């Protein structure tokens, strides 16, 4: 069952300010640091930025329902998810319906998986965490040689990309909590079908993706929700919230 995470309405939001509905896709757990940050980030967006979001937690095994009534979809960390199919359905809905989308950590991995299956035609593409023993030609997401759990490092961002515009810089600091990343052998195919990889670590490994031509479609292997102390939302999260409000104005 979806649960509202919306705090009290901001005194800074005018009476005509649109109330944007955002679906938080994930199997909610206080043990997941990024999940615990969400209420603080919603407060920060409302109070500091005047962006009032009506946020609903949707478990992954309910995420295959119709999400077109939402103004944004954020697939949060916390994999392995209870339902891979539910997560992929939510991502596909965002991609095909032009709903602003952000995927972080596991959300990044599954955004690439959805694109590979439904755009690139890799019907058997899989995630090694969900399907151990995958053949290399089918393994789109594979274990990292060195875990990034607790790691912090720099990400170089492509000039002119949406991410660079939101960040106001071409380099950013990133916090990670993951053990899986995209298989390099498949990246050229994803690029050829329109997915742009716009952020890399110092070794050149992909850490950020976006979909040009979509109103807002960003995915990061790092977790921007863990940036700082949570009292100021990361620019990529503020970007999602801003896109959600813009989407709400079209309804």
Care to give the gist of this entry?
Keywords: ATP-binding, Glutamine amidotransferase, Ligase, Nucleotide-binding, Pyrimidine biosynthesis. The protein is of the alpha/beta class and 251 residues long. The chain has helices at 33-49, 84-97, 106-118, 162-167, 187-192, 235-248; strands spanning 3-4, 20-25, 53-58, 72-75, 101-104, 126-127, 139-143, 152-157, 171-175, 180-182, 196-200, 206-210, 217-220.
Quick tags:
251 residues, CTP_synthase, alpha/beta, 3-stranded mixed β-sheet, glutamine amidotransferase, Rossmann fold, 28% helix
| Domain count | 1
Integer-rounded radius of gyration: 17 Å
Q: Which percent band covers the strand fraction? A: 15-25%
CATH names the topology as Rossmann fold
| Helix percent band | 25-40%
The CATH superfamily is known as: Class I glutamine amidotransferase (GATase) domain
**What's the CATH architecture?**
3-Layer(aba) Sandwich
**Content-based structural category:** alpha/beta
Describe the largest sheet.
10 strands, mixed
- E-strand count: 13
Whole-Å distance between the termini? 24 Å
Mean pLDDT: 92
User: Topology as H/E string?
Assistant: EEHEEHEHEEEHEEHEEEH
* The CATH C-level class name: Alpha Beta
Strand order of the largest sheet: 1-3-2-4-5-13-12-11-8-9
Low-confidence stretches: 7-15
Instruction: Categorize the overall geometry.
Output: globular
Number of helices: 6
């Amino acid at each position: 069952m979806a649960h509202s995470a919306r705090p009290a309405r901001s005194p800074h939001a005018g009476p005509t300010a649109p109330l944007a509905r955002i679906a938080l896709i994930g199997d909610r757990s206080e043990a997941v640091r990024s999940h615990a940050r969400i209420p603080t980030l919603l407060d920060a967006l409302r109070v500091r930025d005047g962006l009032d979001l009506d946020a609903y937690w949707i478990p992954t095994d309910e995420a295959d329902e119709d999400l077109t009534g939402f103004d944004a979809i954020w697939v949060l960390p916390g994999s392995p998810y209870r339902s891979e199919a539910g997560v992929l359905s939510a991502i596909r809905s965002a991609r095909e319906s032009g709903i602003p989308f952000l995927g972080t950590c596991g959300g990044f991995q599954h955004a690439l998986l959805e694109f590979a299956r439904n755009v690139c035609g890799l019907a058997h593409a899989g995630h090694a965490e969900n399907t151990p023993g995958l053949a290399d030609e089918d393994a789109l997401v594979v274990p990292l040689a060195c875990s990034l759990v607790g790691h912090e490092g720099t990400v170089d961002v492509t000039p002119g990309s949406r991410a660079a515009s939101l960040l106001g810089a071409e380099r950013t600091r990133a916090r990670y909590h993951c053990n899986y990343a995209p298989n390099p052998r498949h990246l050229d195919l994803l690029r050829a079908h329109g997915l742009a990889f716009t952020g890399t670590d110092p070794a050149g490994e992909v850490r950020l993706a976006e979909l040009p031509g979509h109103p807002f479609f960003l995915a990061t292997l790092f977790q921007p929700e863990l940036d700082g102390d949570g009292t100021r939302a990361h620019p990529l999260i503020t970007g999602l919230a801003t896109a959600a409000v813009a989407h709400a104005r079209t309804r």
